[in-house]
Amino acid sequence: MHSDAFSAHQFIELALDNQVLKFGEFVLKSGRISPYFFNAGLLATGEMLSVLANGYADALAAQMKDDNQDELVIFGAAYKGIPFVAATAQALWLNHGINAKWGYNRKEVKTHGEGGNLVGADVSGRAVWILDDVITAGTAMREVVDILSNAGASVAGILVALDRKEKGQAEHSAIQELAATLNVPVQALVDMDDIIGYLEADDSPYQDATQLAKMQHYRNQYGV
Ligand code: OMP
């Protein structure tokens, strides 16, 4: 199994080539109007899922260096975090020999069979790494933290594909707020500055001065 080191530049290019990352005008969950949107639902090929999962697995393996790796529990937030957590558990095993426990939530509570809204590894009493796609203002992530807390779990860390590096509830970025509130590492594979840096790069096939100006303007408005 080959596993190249994750490259933000390559990931951004792959995302643009496959319309995962798009430029235009998008209304975000926070109500902000953004000149770009990252749709992780379109990471819908074996190659893209592998690149993402290998990136998540490398980041987690680096975080776990000094800890007991057998204690690693990873949790995917419904819905988009679910395939990512499964693929990452596999990448951790195949690339790093780390046998992580993994689970996820479902949005609809099941009232028959085993019941409940959590699936997979038992998270009760465990410190869990949350995997998700994007952080903007941090609302989605705070909901996941509540789900875990209601299940008797604590948060060991947060890992997302994209940190849009935007203001959260106040002047700090959503990631900074989460890190400060929970006192855990919060990490992203790629952030808004990487995307701007990619657009500025001389060798970028997506060079576009108008788009770059819109991105910079948006960053001035909502960025930190
Ligand atoms: P917050 O809850 O504001 O942090 O927004 C994060 C969520 O917004 C993600 O989980 C996505 O559902 C969605 N989103 C994207 O998927 N891609 C983006 O580029 C921006 C958003 C967004 O609406 O902010």
From TrEMBL:
Its EC number is 2.4.2.10. 5-phospho-alpha-D-ribose 1-diphosphate binds at residues 29, 79-80, 106-107, 110, 112, 132-140. It catalyses: orotidine 5'-phosphate + diphosphate = orotate + 5-phospho-alpha-D-ribose 1-diphosphate. GO terms for molecular function: glycosyltransferase activity. The keyword Magnesium applies. Its cofactor is Mg(2+). Transmembrane segments: none annotated. InterPro entries: OPRT, Or_phspho_trans_dom, PRTase-like, PRTase_dom. Orotate binds at residues 37-38, 136, 164. Pfam families: Pribosyltran (PF00156). Keywords: Glycosyltransferase, Magnesium, Pyrimidine biosynthesis, Transferase. Pathway: Pyrimidine metabolism; UMP biosynthesis via de novo pathway; UMP from orotate: step 1/2. Residues 58-169 form the Phosphoribosyltransferase domain. It is an enzyme of class 2 (transferase). Belongs to the purine/pyrimidine phosphoribosyltransferase family. PyrE subfamily. Homodimer. Catalyzes the transfer of a ribosyl phosphate group from 5-phosphoribose 1-diphosphate to orotate, leading to the formation of orotidine monophosphate (OMP). NCBIfam families: pyrE (TIGR00336). This is Orotate phosphoribosyltransferase.
